[in-house]
Specification:
Elements (H helix, E strand, L loop, with lengths): L15 H15 L8 H15 L4 H9 L4 H11 L10 H20 L4 E5 L6 H13 L8 E7 L2 H9 L1 E3 L8 H7 E4 L2 E4 L1 H6 E5 L12 E6 L8 H13 L1 E9 L13 E5 L2 E4 L6
Parallel strand pairs: 1-2, 1-7, 2-6, 7-8
Antiparallel strand pairs: 3-5, 4-5, 8-10, 9-10
Helix pairs in contact: 1-3, 2-4, 5-6
């Protein structure tokens, strides 16, 4: 049986069995839960992949995805089905909190020779990570000379490559304060590139949040925003708990405006503001 309205003239149809196969693969690869209500989105995004590969049916496409030869196409499918909505200083209250309540102490420690680590755990095309760098440099313009690093990760290699390039259209900088736009971005044709101090603070890496994490050190602040909404409850519970094991006592976690900490990690993370949490065990709660 074919999902209603999921067939166009001269194009393959997406049946329920094929949708379920695709949803199961996406869940296995990335922990992303696809409800049947997303069938139209799956069709519209993957029909382009079928045309690019000259494949006549979603059944043949699923067969390819399940084969050894389809490993690279599973990455293409993941890229097509993930949503990359971001902007500079999105949910500005998080950055205000960082600059007011978190970074002054952290950067004072860094100035004294201590290590400081921040993590943008779903960095998309880089605006969140560069916003973190802008906040760090706003609090201490010399931070690039200390042991301060921002890890920026995303599951999609394409958006990580775009983030690493650090080049944005002028319209993307609307929410960057004018002084920071003038100081931290340079014109590159019609676009604007981030400056070397921002680049020096950030390491971009491809990382699946539901796979093994190679990092051994702990973080002083983590942003993972508007990602867990795509996971089911069990996957969310596991993710929040994994974050607590990757955090310093007293460190901070920022999540998306429609997300909530649930599961065992709720005992360890104290709410301190709008979708901001602090790991219990620090000098102050």
């Amino acid at each position: 049986m074919t999902h209603p309205a999921l067939q166009m003239a001269s194009e393959a149809s997406l049946g329920k069995a094929e949708f379920r196969d695709i949803a199961d693969m996406l869940y296995a690869d990335a922990g992303i839960h696809l409800a049947e209500s997303k069938a139209s989105l799956v069709y519209s995004r993957l029909a382009k992949r079928l045309r690019a590969l000259n494949i006549d049916s979603f059944r043949d496409y699923c067969t390819l995805l399940a084969s050894d030869a389809g490993r690279s196409e599973r990455a293409e499918m993941l890229s097509a089905l993930t949503t990359n909505v971001t902007r500079f200083f999105r949910e500005r209250h998080h950055f205000d909190h960082l600059e007011r309540a978190v970074l002054p102490d952290l950067l004072a420690r860094a100035q004294a020779g201590k290590r400081v680590r921040l993590w943008s755990a779903a960095c998309s095309t880089g605006q969140e990570a560069y916003s973190l760098a802008l906040s760090v440099l706003a609090v201490d313009p010399q931070a690039v000379n200390y042991d301060v690093k921002i890890l920026a990760t995303d599951i999609d290699p394409r958006v990580v490559a775009e983030a690493r390039a650090g080049v944005y259209r002028a319209a993307a900088l609307t929410d960057v304060p004018a002084e920071q736009r003038a100081r931290r971005f340079r014109a590159q044709g019609e676009d604007f590139a981030v400056d070397e101090d921002m680049r020096a603070l950030i390491k971009f890496r491809v990382l699946n949040l539901n796979a093994e994490w190679p990092m051994r050190g702990r973080f002083d602040a983590i942003m993972c925003r508007n990602v867990a909404i795509y996971f089911d409850d069990a996957t969310q519970h596991a993710l929040w708990s994994r974050f607590t094991h990757q955090m310093q006592p007293g460190s901070w976690l920022y999540i998306g405006h429609s997300e909530r900490i649930n599961g065992p990690a709720a005992r360890d993370l104290a709410p301190v503001g709008i979708t901001a949490y602090r790991l219990r065990g620090g000098a102050r709660e």
